[in-house]
Amino acid sequence: MKPLATPTIEEIERYKEIKARPERVLPIVDEPLCVDGKYSYGIPYPRSEEETNDLEKIKTNYDLLFIKDDVFNQEQIEIFDNHEWTHTQHGSYNYLIPPDGVDGEQFINNVKIAAKTIPNVPLMDFLIFDTIQAVRELDPNAQFTYFHGIWYTVQNKIHVGDQIHRDFHRIMAGWTCLYHLAGTSGETLFFDDYIPDPNKKPSKVVDFKQGRRILFPGYYSHRADIPVPGDTRAIAVVRFQIKTVLNEQIFAKTPGLENKYDLNNINQ
User: What is the DSSP letter of 5?
Assistant: First the structure.
């Protein structure tokens, strides 16, 4: 792991100022567009007003946060450590999976082809393969029904700060596999709910550790804490939908929704 750079006085002061800010929640609906009774977040996910209201009710079931360490070998760590991370760097790839699902090998072959067309996204095929393995360790019968993409995000002296958000803006069987790629700091914070509150405190803090993987339902409220001055925090998130017995526990802390949405029958 690369040592921290020596921060400037200005970077240290900026870090203190950002750490003192109250929590901010990314709105579920920001200046919503209504077309034929459907509301949109500004992205192609039309939803009803009722579903928007239900999104606000969802509470985090911490039993569905699955953490595993040391998922990278030494060669992979060196690749991430030596990669030139920039604050604008990201990569994404969307793959529509056939209705009857797809096996892991076919999935990876498609991803490898796509990875060659996206520059500066190290080890994308490995991260997706590891995601498949992580899910099937929990449920060998899990079926991947849609792949929403993989994103690399970087926080450093240029790009810092994050607000409470969710990775999915519809109620579906959306899951996230988050990887700590490079860095030494910048915890991943989880919150009980999505209700805006400047005094909101995280209910679970997952320390940043290179090689750590966090698997969880993607619309549970979370955010990244900022890295300490001189550090660069690089992560990747893999987002996907699955049919699995795990979906039955997503609304365990939100009575009233568990019988309202059959997540195994909702697809993109």
Answer: P
d(CA 152, CA 138): 25
DSSP state, residue 140? T
Q: Which domains does the chain have, with CATH numbers?
A: 9-265 (2.60.120.10)
209 pLDDT band (50/70/90 cuts)? very high
CA 54 centroid distance within chain: 20
Residue found under tokens 């921060």: 7
| From 134-148, 183-197, 227-241, the region with the lowest mean pLDDT | 134-148
Residue with tokens 């996230």: 176
> C-alpha 172: how far from its chain's center?
15
221: closest CA among 4, 21, 28, 1? 28
pLDDT digits (tens, 9 = 90+) for 122-171: 888 788 889 988 998 999 988 888 778 788 888 988 777 788 999 988 88
**Cα gap 226→232, rounded to integer Å:** 9
Structure tokens at 60: 């985090």
Residue among 245, 59, 224, 100 nearest 151 (CA) = 224
The conformation of residue 133, written as its DSSP 8-state character, comes to: H
Report the 10 Å Cβ neighbour count for 255.
10
Using alpha carbons, list the distances in angstroms from residue 109 to 58, 88, 119.
36, 27, 18
DSSP H helices, the chain, are 9-19, 49-57, 74-82, 104-115, 124-138
Return the closest-CA partner of residue 155 out of 80, 230, 87. 87
State the Cα angle at 41 between 38 and 46, rounded to 5°. 35
Residue 105 Ramachandran class (φ > 0 left, ψ -120 to 50 alpha, else beta): alpha
